[in-house]
Amino acid sequence: MASNLKTYRTSKGWSQAKLAEKAGISTQYIGMIETKVKFPSSDMLQKLATALKIDPSALFYNEVELETIKKGIQKDILKNFGETFCSIITNYVDEKIKDLDK
Question: Are residues 31 and 72 located together in one domain of the fold?
Fold first, then answer.
């Protein structure tokens, strides 16, 4: 959790102070979380996640799980897109055939 918090924070280019400001908590507390001195309460996790604009559960995934989840989402999107596209084309062709039959 601590390393994910730091990863999300640094990916935004934020210092601990910036995250603390956005979350409404102290910079020292952010430092204690990232160094595993403290573990945040559920309310604190929500504040951090809201500030970072992520789901609180994202703080608990390891990088491999994140990549697996992203790939699964991408695969689902592509599958749904493919099915939708095929359906649109099929309907279009069917309409054109009906027009020819008239």
Answer: no
Token pair in block for residue 61 = 């995934």
0.70 surpassed by pTM: no
When divided into structural domains, the chain yields a total of 2
Count each helix (H run) and each strand (E run) in the chain, helices first. 5, 0
Task: Tell me the percentage of the chain whose pLDDT exceeds 70.
Answer: 90
Tell me if residue 58 falls in helix, strand or coil: helix
The verdict on 66 and 100 lying in the same domain is: yes
Q: Is the same domain home to 46 and 8?
A: yes
* Angle at alpha carbon of residue 58, lines to 13 and 18, rounded to 5°: 30
Q: 48 near 19, Cβ under 8 Å?
A: yes
Domain span at 95: 62-102
Q: What is the CA radius of gyration of the chain?
A: 23
Largest Cα–Cα separation, the chain: 77
